[in-house]
Write a structure and sequence with these properties.
heterodimer, A: about 280 residues, mainly alpha, B: 17 helices, about 40% helix, binds adenosine-5'-triphosphate, binds magnesium ion
Chain lengths: ~280, ~400
């Protein structure tokens, strides 16, 4: 058997060089983004920790009740109560703040991108492999460049989370808009609607239920990534998992783990509930 | 009644290089050959049609014959590859964004086969859509939409969503939505095909009613020849992207342009198309009551008839007298009035054959065609009722 010849193509070095170059050239820009994101996270966290615990429980109950039913509301409030009893209340709030920030930015980027992909074939063809790469690349890989741009802490966590979580909302937004019945769009066209009017009055409202499925997936993935991102110094429940691994602390590991599961269940049901509500009430106006 | 919309040599070819197909069509190549050679699909080729103001014009043809392609050219959902479409003196094919918008907002509206309703809007919201696009105020929108919904019989359904309505009702919403804009021209692409036969018949009649009230110019597509001939003032028959014949239903029925059309009209239910005036003959002999029996006999003998219609002083139909009854009457010294048979079957000029047949079965005399004032306008012989039921080529 022959060995692979001793050729080395230094692609890793090239990427390394590019990342460093971007970092030094756009430093003020990254500082600005850092500042904005960091403040958003702190704002959410500050608000959530400021709330008395029972107000938060009532809020969770209300959400469960509104989007599902009474027993769901009670169950979710119960979950939150348990997390508090583990002594992980503040950590949970940080995690929620990171996820919220990441999801909001993901939607701000993802929905327009998806719309544009639906309207422009070439852009869509270009974006597909990019989205595939974003989703299949092991999530840890994102952590390295984001550390570079934003050092350690919650901000790089948010950006790693966005990269990982944004594809579903982009994909489903595109799909949702493309799948609007042709005849329905034509009927809007036949009344002399402009393209923007068709988008605003017909395509988007018709697409909302499917788009909400994308929002749901994005939120779930954001939660998963927010946990992993504790490796770059994000606080919250993920950090507790990491600590428990280092200390081989089974009790803490379990409590932090189950807290994440509780959070996931609540976030999933509530975002799915929003989607269902839209379908029932029909989004327009 | 002038021409509202004039299509001149309209062609629509789909594919990578539409214009390249035109010379091939001129050479007489078929649709399939052109597709194989150039990758272009001929949707419509060289359609020239004049649609009159206030006319219900039907385009008929089998699936894939290019009906939808053609009707979609009329509001430029399809841009014709060549040809012009003149509406009120302007070629709309040349319209760019603003003018096109105006044209669609004000002059022409469309009703779709699968309704094309906005499922996220209420019934009222659907009907308001066109007005909204035109920038009509919310109040006025509501008022106009409500009125239009009422006129299609959907009062009380304003706040429902389309998926809560039956198919027939959904298409009424589609119709109300198109009419809300008060367009001059209404395009309807197989609007009733998705409905079951009973609802369909009902909708056809309602459309005819509506047409009588509103006098819109309607272009209606169907693949159902019975529907076409029932509602159409004139009908254009399409085949493989070409218009093969245009004419009034009776004209097409009497003189099919080619074998394709005679094949098409073979299964038509002629009793629903043919009207009394299509089969009646002029009353070339007639006697008045005051003429008396002798004149009646003379009249019949000189015309070789076995019976003759009798009118009264006001020239209104009084009855019929047969030659036997007349001769017997003379022998018995009776008057014409004594022997005339007054229980004559009468029909109106626009009565359909299906209404005439039962009368033809019950009587042994010819049937009288009379006008509103009961004046005799024509005569239908019983044999003609039968023979008109049979397609020309079967004779
Ligand atoms: N967008 C398009 N691209 C390519 N070919 C098309 C397009 N639209 C229609 N065609 C072709 O044009 C021809 C006529 O189609 P069209 O839809 O006008 O037929 P139709 O008479 O309306 O039939 P149907 O009764 O089934 O609705 C068909 O061969 C069809 O494949
Ligand atoms: Mg069609």
């Amino acid at each position: 058997m022959q060995e692979f010849p001793d050729i080395s193509i230094p692609i890793g070095d090239v990427v390394d060089f590019i990342v460093r170059w971007i970092d030094s050239t756009f430093a003020p820009f990254f500082d600005f983004i850092f500042y904005l994101t960091s403040n958003t996270i702190q704002g959410f966290d500050g608000f959530l920790t400021m709330l008395p615990w029972w107000v938060f429980l009532i809020l969770i109950f209300a959400l469960g009740y509104y989007f599902q039913n009474v027993s769901a509301g009670i169950l979710y409030a119960g979950f939150m109560f348990l997390v508090g009893s583990f002594g992980l209340w503040d950590e949970m709030m940080i995690t929620i703040a990171i996820v919220l920030t990441a999801v909001i930015i993901s939607l701000l980027i993802g929905i327009p991108t998806g719309i544009f992909m639906a309207m422009n074939k070439a852009f869509s063809v270009f974006m597909r492999p990019v989205l595939d790469a974003m989703q299949t690349m092991p999530s840890f890989v994102y952590l390295i460049p984001v550390i570079f741009f934003f050092s350690l802490g919650n901000v790089p966590a948010v950006f790693a989370t966005i990269i990982y979580a944004v594809p579903p909302v982009i994909r489903l937004t595109e799909l949702a808009i493309r799948n609007v019945d042709r005849e329905v769009i034509e009927s809007a066209e036949s009344f002399g609607s402009s393209r923007m009017q068709i988008l605003k009055k017909v395509q988007l409202p018709q697409a909302i239920p499917t788009m909400m499925a994308g929002v749901n997936q994005t939120t779930m993935m954001a939660l998963a990534m927010a946990v992993i991102a504790s490796m770059v110094g994000a606080g919250g429940l993920g950090e507790q998992v990491l600590i428990s691994i280092n200390r081989i602390d089974i009790a803490l590991g379990f409590e932090a783990g189950i807290s994440i599961v509780f959070l996931a269940i609540i976030i999933d049901r509530i975002t799915a509930g929003i989607g269902d509500k839209f379908q029932r009430d029909k989004g327009d106006h | 009644m002038g021409v509202k919309m004039s299509l001149q040599h309209v062609s629509k070819i789909f594919g990578p290089k539409p214009k390249s197909a035109i010379p091939l069509i001129k050479e007489g190549k078929s649709k399939d050959e052109i597709l194989a050679e150039t990758g272009n699909t001929v949707g419509v080729y060289d359609a020239t049609i004049d649609v009159n103001e206030g006319e219900l014009f039907v385009i008929m043809g089998l699936s894939g014959s290019g009906k939808s392609t053609l009707i979609r050219c009329l509001n430029l959902l399809n841009k014709p590859t060549s040809g012009s479409i003149v509406v009120d003196g302007e070629d709309v094919v040349k319209y760019k964004t603003e003018k096109l918008k105006n044209y669609r907002q004000n002059k022409i509206a469309m009703v779709f086969q699968h309704f094309g309703l906005f499922s996220h809007r209420t019934v009222l919201g659907n009907v308001e859509y066109g007005l909204e696009i035109r920038g009509v105020s919310a109040e006025e929108r509501r008022e106009i939409a409500t009125k239009n919904l009422e006129s299609v019989g959907l009062k009380g359904w304003e706040d429902k969503y389309p998926d809560e309505l039956s198919g027939g009702m959904q298409q009424r919403v589609g119709l109300a939505r198109a009419l809300a804009n008060d367009p001059d021209i209404l395009l309807m692409d197989e609007p009733f095909s998705a409905l079951d036969p009973l609802i369909r018949r009902e909708m056809q009649l309602e459309l005819l009613d509506l047409q009588e009230r509103l006098q819109k110019t309607i272009i209606f597509i169907t693949h159902d020849i019975n529907e076409a001939f029932k509602i159409g003032d004139r009908v254009a028959v399409m085949k493989d992207g070409r218009v093969v014949q245009t004419g009034a239903p009776e004209e097409i029925l009497e003189n099919p342009a080619n074998e394709y059309i005679s094949d098409f009209i073979k299964d038509i239910d002629r009793s629903k198309i043919i009207q009394a005036e299509n089969i009646m003959i002029r009353p070339n002999a007639m006697v008045s009551l005051k003429d008396g029996l002798k004149v009646a006999v003379q009249e019949m003998e000189s015309n070789g008839l076995s019976s003759v219609f009798v009118t009264d002083r006001k020239r209104q139909l009084h009855g019929i007298v047969t030659i036997d009854a007349a001769i017997e009457g003379i022998n018995q010294k009776k008057t014409l009035e004594d022997v005339v048979f007054t229980d004559v079957a009468t029909v109106k000029k626009d009565d359909y054959l299906e209404e005439i047949i039962p009368k033809a079965v019950e009587t042994t005399y010819p049937i009288a065609v009379v006008n509103e004032e009961n004046r005799l306008e024509g005569i239908i012989l019983r044999v003609h009722v039968l023979s008109s039921l049979i397609a020309e080529d079967a004779e």
